[in-house]
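Box S2. Input/output pair 1.
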Amino acid sequence: MYGETAMTIQETGAARPAGRPRSEKAEKAIIDATLDLLSEGMGISDLSIEAIASKAGVGKTTIYRRWSNKEDLVVDALSTLKAPLPPLAGTSVRDDLISLLDAMRQEAGNQRNRCVMNIAMSEADRYPQLLERFVKRAVEPRRQALRDVIERGIASGELRADLDVGMGVAILSGAMLWHSKWGPAGDLPADLAERVVDAALAGIAP
């Protein structure tokens, strides 16, 4: 849910056109309305500024002061579902991988978030620029964090020297994605990240 653990618009680094001072209450209402409509089954194609404004209880001009078009708003709304990356202790590759994957588990564990992301990603082919911007802002930092830990593990000898870094990232993140999309409804198991990491390390450790 948009709130304590989610990224704020300021944290996502989204650009804003110049204008009158922002109302955080109005901005939150608009973001929540966008996510609510998506979670209720409205696809990006059917989503309209009019529908968002009506659900948020604001005028369309209030939205257009903050976002120049629907795609900009959707990118910002989806980005709020991604929590900030956790601090890494750096004591072991295993511990750091578990921390990163557990952050993914917590993000995906919210049923509303999972529903929103599934609906939004189902239309990715129709909105390639939207997907590209979302991946660059919210997904790529997580991929890079995984790459950094894996590369550190190769350098320290904790992981195989011949390990394909990109494949390692795909194995770890792909397992989490599978569970979030196809796993049982409800919260993901609290030990899921640890189990995924240990299963992967059995194949990629020296």
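Box S3. Input/output pair 2.
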Amino acid sequence: MQDKLYLTSNSLTCIAEILECYHSENERYAVRLDKTLFHPQGGGQPCDKGTINGHEVLHVAQNRDGHVLHYLHVRLPLGPAELHIDRDHRLEHARLHTAGHMIGHLVERIGWQAVKAHHWRGESRVVFRNPKNALPPFLDDLSNRCAEQIQLAQPISISFQEGRRQVAIGGLGQYACGGTHVENTSELNGLKIVRIKNKKDELSVHYEMMD
């Protein structure tokens, strides 16, 4: 069983063991490790960037067997491997992901239900449906509510309930989630609600991080 350290740790370096390395498509090699810090692409979040034994990791994905595979341009020998995560890239998407959760909780408080989210730079949004005929939020009001939560520095906590990973923001609530997150909401300073689109019974809140 592969140990997916990114689910429980914010560490950026570790030593792992290369168990398998084989030629994949597009002149790339797939590397399977006994444990990994690399978050794979999925759950509305891009994969981590970084290196294995000094070689750039081009892509990270989870296969049908649940193993996280790391794709490189070079074949790596089996044995010990030093993993390094790109800190700036990890932090950028952890901030976007946590911001999406916070927006989800705040909009759900006025009667909407979050159904999907996308946490990519320039494309970040949370989509809601309207089961209770709720009124859409005003952009300024939602922006102010987000600013209040950022000022409160609400802690982000991780727990596992019935085998599912849960991510909670202070007393706002929790979502089942496998993504990376910051430690508290003060790290979301610079969040901007760009626009709110309301079409029939679907609401989309678009946002970005300004720094």
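Caption for Box S3: Residues 87-108 form the longest helix (22 residues). Helices lie at 87-108, 139-152.
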